[in-house]
Amino acid sequence: MPVKWLLYWKPNQGSTLNSQILKEATKCVESLNGVKKEKWKATLEYYKPFLRDESNRAEFPNEVVGVSLPEEPSKYYFIIRTQRIVMEADLSFQLIVQKLQSYTCKLSFDFEGFQYQLGDFRLRVGKVIPTHALTVRGIVMEVTNVIAFE
């Protein structure tokens, strides 16, 4: 299992974030002799239960987070934060949940950017944007020690 470190940076409330900061972070990585590899993209979705009967509210987790990762394109991960449960499923499980209408997606974010190789480390630098919008909501940096992965 690789050793990872994740940094999520978002601006102070009331200030705006533009892609210029992302360009500066990318220049810093390249100035460290980082070799630009390929693009990467991950998706995070917040699900809320779709309850037809409010008396069942206690039986369902109030919030479920779904994540798709570039390392595992055929898998989808559901996280029940209140119970600290992570479930690994096939990508089609996401469609099953939507067709059953047990949970509905309330908010979705895309993490996209470039991957760099810096010696024994893989560094991903990207922006965080709502799925159907263009507004940059934050910047994410993920550092993975690839030697630990081998």
UniProtKB/TrEMBL annotation:
Q: In terms of domain of life, where is this protein from? A: Eukaryota
What keywords are assigned to this protein? Activator, Nucleus, Transcription, Transcription regulation
Q: What is its main location?
A: nucleus
Coiled-coil blocks: none
**Which Pfam families did the record assign?**
Med20 (PF08612)
Compartments, record wording? Nucleus
Task: Indicate the quaternary assembly.
Answer: Component of the Mediator complex.
Cited function: Component of the Mediator complex, a coactivator involved in the regulated transcription of nearly all RNA polymerase II-dependent genes. Mediator functions as a bridge to convey information from gene-specific regulatory proteins to the basal RNA polymerase II transcription machinery. Mediator is recruited to promoters by direct interactions with regulatory proteins and serves as a scaffold for the assembly of a functional preinitiation complex with RNA polymerase II and the general transcription factors.
As for family, the record states: Belongs to the Mediator complex subunit 20 family.
What's this protein's name?
Mediator of RNA polymerase II transcription subunit 20
Q: What is the lineage of its organism?
A: Eukaryota, Viridiplantae, Streptophyta, Embryophyta, Tracheophyta
